[in-house]
Design brief:
single chain, alpha/beta, six-stranded mixed β-sheet, 28% strand
Length: 137
């Protein structure tokens, strides 16, 4: 699997980490997993960390399509999400997604580092745990 999820119970922040090649199909799977886990944890905020992505092959039509959908994490007007994208090409696509999706995701931000993401959410000293340890099977 190209992604994994962790959760900080103190701040109720869901963290999704994506690795490898970011393509339309796997990004769609990540989107569905974000929905599932954000509902299961009742997360107040989300950080989607793409800093370990080696290559981005997302199509602009996929980005436009996802930006027009309902957000994966419910209640987008009250639950901030942060995209962490360090690579320049990926950062540009993330900003495109942010701009296209702004009406449905007004609290979405794009940053380059995890420290910036945590600061944007006001989370200090998080203790992220793998979801496997927190959710019943």
């Amino acid at each position: 699997m190209a992604f994994r999820f962790e959760f900080d119970p103190g701040s109720k922040t869901l963290l999704g980490r994506y690795e490898g090649i970011l393509a339309d199909e796997s990004a769609g799977e990540f989107y569905r997993a974000v929905r599932k886990y954000s509902i299961a944890t009742d997360a107040r905020a989300g950080i989607w960390d793409f800093s370990s992505v080696a290559e981005v092959t997302l199509s602009t039509s996929f980005i436009r399509d996802v930006a027009s959908r309902e957000p994966a994490m419910p209640d987008a007007a009250r639950r901030p999400r942060i995209l962490v994208v360090s690579a320049t090409a990926g950062y540009g696509l993330a900003r495109m997604f942010q701009i296209l999706g702004e009406p449905k995701r007004p609290l979405l931000k794009v940053v380059r580092t995890m420290d910036e993401a945590l600061a944007a959410l006001g989370v200090q000293s998080p203790h992220f745990e793998p979801l496997e340890q927190l959710l019943p099977r």
